[in-house]
Amino acid sequence: SVYEPLKSIDLPRPDNETLWDKLDHYYRIVKATLLMYQSPTTGLFPTKTCGDDQKAKIQDSLYCAAGAWALALAYRYA
């Protein structure tokens, strides 16, 4: 499912990480969990990623888009 957390989140990271390293880490998470499943034609995100059911809900798509947008803003103002 799109909403399952990545196992790599719990990996230990060095304390001397720069802000850019942290943002890159979050980008990889967003890319693997959200952007990978975005529809190229509609821009919506499916509610389920397994099986043949590819229906998308507007509310779920807005939450996914807000996460990606927040990360983009973090990059812009970093």
Present the secondary structure layout.
Blueprint (H helix, E strand, L loop, with lengths): L18 H15 L24 H20 L1
Give the proportion of residues in helices: 40-55%
- The strand count comes to 0
**Global mean pLDDT:** 79
**What is the number of helical segments per DSSP (H or I, 4+ residues)?**
2
Shape: elongated
Structural class: mainly alpha
Question: What are the secondary-structure elements, in order, as H or E?
Answer: HH
Span between N and C termini?
Answer: 31 Å
User: Low-confidence stretches at least 5 residues in length (pLDDT < 50)?
Assistant: none
Rg is: 14 Å
- Main β-sheet description: none
Strand percentage lies at under 5%
A few lines on this structure:
By secondary structure, this protein is mainly alpha-helical. It contains two helices and no strands.
Question: What labels would you give this structure?
Answer:
mainly alpha, 78 residues, 0% strand, 45% helix, elongated
Can you walk me through this structure?
The model has no long low-confidence stretch (mean pLDDT 79). α1 runs antiparallel to α2. It contains 2 helices and no strands. The termini are far apart. The protein is mostly helical and 78 residues long. The chain has helices at residues 19-33, 58-77. The radius of gyration is 14 Å and the shape is elongated. This is Phosphorylase b kinase regulatory subunit. Pathway: Glycan biosynthesis; glycogen metabolism. Phosphorylase b kinase catalyzes the phosphorylation of serine in certain substrates, including troponin I.
